[in-house]
Amino acid sequence: MSDSAPDTAGAAGEMPRRKGRLHVATVETLRQMIVSGALPPGQKLREQELCDRLGVSRTPLREALRTLAAQGLVTLSQNRGAEVAALTLADITQLFDVVATLEALAARLACQAISDEGIAEIALAHDRMRLHHARGELPEYFALNQLIHRALIEAARNPVLLDIWEMMSSRVERAKYLPNLQGERWHAAMSEHETMLAALQARDGEALSGLMRQHFANGLATVRAAADAA
Asked: Which of 91, 132, 183, 218 has its CA 20 to 30 A from that of 224?
């Protein structure tokens, strides 16, 4: 074969990789817009408007919307098209009840199973999160917040627990973002994370489990107060 012959196999392999990267990027961008409230509950998702905004064609956009529908963030209907899924106080209450139970269980298991290196990694993420909090950088803070919660779930070393948590993670992340938009709750949440880290470092599973439940209860109380005031 001539050295100048085109690498058709390589080109063919690169096309699905590019498509995969585009899909992941489109899903993540839309997911962040929904979680942060930039696309509020009930908003219609007009294809052409989103294609122009994201710089993608209709095909990757539609694939991304189907993925987000499977995650519970988007509703798809033949009559109404695509919309951001509703998020009621009842939805948030039910989500928090379940995820608080999951993470309280994970806290006990993680304190038994996590390595010293695992604790150090969570502590490092915590320090970075604290810095973003001090700077008032909510999106960056929240990304690390999610990383820490996921790390604790993974540290429990229970694949079934992780699978169930992952099924809910996008909806829970969206629900958790709301109370952090309230300045006082954000500061309190940061303080709660300080206490939770100390319990993890002490490997006090019962204490960390209780703190985790209270963490979610406090977030839910803020959402309820905001709903009552509206």
From this structure: 132
Residue that is last in its domain, among 34, 56, 84 = 84
Domain membership of residue 27 as a residue range: 8-84
Both 110 and 161 in one domain: the answer is: yes
Q: Rounded to whole angstroms, how far apart are CA atoms 62 and 76? A: 10
Q: What is the largest CA-CA distance in the chain?
A: 74
Confirm if 190 and 133 have CB atoms less than 8 A apart: yes
* Residue 80: half-sphere exposure toward Cβ, Cα within 13 Å: 12
* Lookup: tokens for 45: 């998702």
The parts of the chain modelled with pLDDT lower than 70 are 1-19, 230
- Residues 43 and 55: their CA atoms lie apart, in Å, by 20
At 42-71, the pLDDT tens digits run 999 999 999 999 999 999 999 999 999 999
Whether 33 and 122 map to the same domain: the answer is no
The enclosing H or E element of 32 equals helix 8-35
> Rounded to whole angstroms, how far apart are CA atoms 219 and 177?
9
Task: Please provide residue 4's backbone torsions phi and psi, each rounded to the nearest 5 degrees.
Answer: -90, 0
Which is it for the CA torsion 142, 145, 151, 154, positive or negative? negative
Backbone conformation region of residue 127, classed left if phi is above 0, alpha if psi is from -120 to 50, else beta: alpha
